[in-house]
Specification:
The protein is built from 8 helices and 27 strands. It is mainly beta. The protein has 3 domains: about 150 residues, Beta Barrel (Cathepsin D, subunit A, domain 1); about 120 residues, Cathepsin D, subunit A, domain 1, CATH 2.40.70.10; about 70 residues, Pdz3 Domain (Roll). The chain has a 6-stranded mixed β-barrel. The chain has a 6-stranded mixed barrel with strand order 13-14-19-15-18-17. Strands 22, 23, 24, 25, 26 and 27 form a 6-stranded antiparallel β-sheet that branches.
Length: about 375
């Protein structure tokens, strides 16, 4: 068992209810991930994603080199698209809020594809902490709270939902998929705050329900998991019910890669942060319970790409990594490799700022684009792609 040093001095001068909160950890949501500040081996504060879908601690290999990590072994990890081998390093310290963890193992890999220069992802934590403490992710207050198990009582206004952690040691809950033909399909879904999406359906369900044929129109989207690349199809789902709450008409992903978790029939898919952020959540792994409460984000619009551009920020510019079929960007001849210098005269926009700015309410968005050494201007007309 890990050695855990807890700062206890504050526990003797505060009310009984406050004693249940061992420590708090502020967070921000950027590019679909929950980012927290964590110190590893007494180094600088790192930007780590807090991920309920991650069983192991991950660290960017460049950060590991900066901190002087040794390579102690290689581990096999099952990600969304298959089994990958990753280098590992043992016996490190980690400070999470006021909690000190010792003898931590980190898996080391290149995480550049999960962040960008505006918001680099230094690593990922989740499962090992959730195993130790009752953990609340409060999106109203942008704060993660860790509770003492022996005296914990769920706050008022939360409802209790059963979950299971098997077979992945990741929370799994029962949800309902609803299709236009009247089909209602109950199934099990991973609760994954590290997934920057709403829902991703696994290959067996996609084939069983012929989702790529029924959720039309749709378009292909290529992304990377830990160390592998896969192509999903993005379509619009009539309705989905989670923890007694129904959401309608939002975009979902349909997996095509039968490797890894996405090829499993034991779960129908993944529920990601775009849905989970609409609830304040409390995880009790030992009792296998999730407490949930709708929050101020509950009725927010689902994020949607109205340009058709897949972007990554590099050297102060938004680089085009892909252009979706039947999209405004394709209509205007945008190409992979284009670099966006300005958007309606605005320079140095982040990827998220671009996504939030390019909306159908703006009938015409002027892009200044660098293509093969020449500057061109593109008039983009944002609209729904599907």
């Amino acid at each position: 068992m890990k050695k855990l040093i807890i700062l206890t001095l504050l526990l003797f001068s505060i009310p009984v209810w406050a004693q249940e909160v061992i420590t708090t950890l502020p967070f921000e949501i950027v590019n679909g991930h929950i980012y927290v500040k964590v110190v590893v081996d007494n180094g600088r504060p790192l930007n780590l994603a807090f991920d309920t879908g991650a069983r192991a601690n991950l660290l960017h290999e460049q950060v590991a080199e900066e901190l002087g990590f040794n390579i102690d072994g290689v581990q096999q990890v099952n990600d969304a698209s298959g089994i990958v081998k990753i280098k590992s390093s043992y016996n490190h310290s980690m400070k999470v809020g006021s909690l000190d963890f010792r003898r931590e193992t980190f898996l080391l890999m290149n995480l550049d594809h999960l962040g960008d220069e505006d918001h680099p992802m230094d690593g990922v934590i989740g499962g090992s902490i959730l195993d130790e403490f009752i953990t609340e992710i409060n999106f109203d207050d942008s704060e993660i709270r860790f509770y003492e198990r022996s005296v914990f009582q769920a706050p008022e206004g939360f409802t209790e939902e059963k979950m299971t952690l098997e077979p992945f040691r990741v929370p799994i809950i029962n949800c309902k998929l609803m299709l236009n033909n009247g089909t209602v399909k109950e199934g099990f879904y991973l609760v994954d705050t590290g997934a920057a999406l709403a829902i991703r359906f696994n290959v067996p369900l996609v084939k069983e329900q012929k989702l790529t044929e029924s959720l039309l129109p749709n378009y292909a989207y290529t992304s990377r998991a830990l160390n592998s690349e896969s192509t999903d199809y993005i379509g619009r789902l009539p309705a989905f019910e989670i923890m007694g709450h129904k959401f309608q008409g939002f975009q979902v992903r349909m997996a095509t890669d039968a490797g890894g978790v996405s090829g499993r029939s034991s779960v129908d898919g993944i529920v990601g942060l775009e849905i989970l952020k609409r609830f304040n959540l409390i995880f009790d792994y030992r009792q296998e319970i999730i407490y949930m409460q709708p929050n101020s984000l509950y009725n927010n619009f689902f994020l949607e790409n109205f340009s058709g551009l897949k972007l990554k920020k590099q050297n102060g510019r938004l680089h085009v990594e892909a252009v979706a079929d039947n999209s405004p960007a394709l209509d205007q001849g945008m190409k992979t490799g284009d670099e966006i210098l300005s958007v309606d005269g605005q320079k140095n926009l982040s990827k998220m700022a671009f996504l939030e700015y390019v909306q159908p309410m703006r009938k015409d968005v002027k892009l200044e684009v660098l293509r093969e050494g020449k500057i061109i201007f593109v008039s983009l007309k944002p609209r729904k792609i599907i």
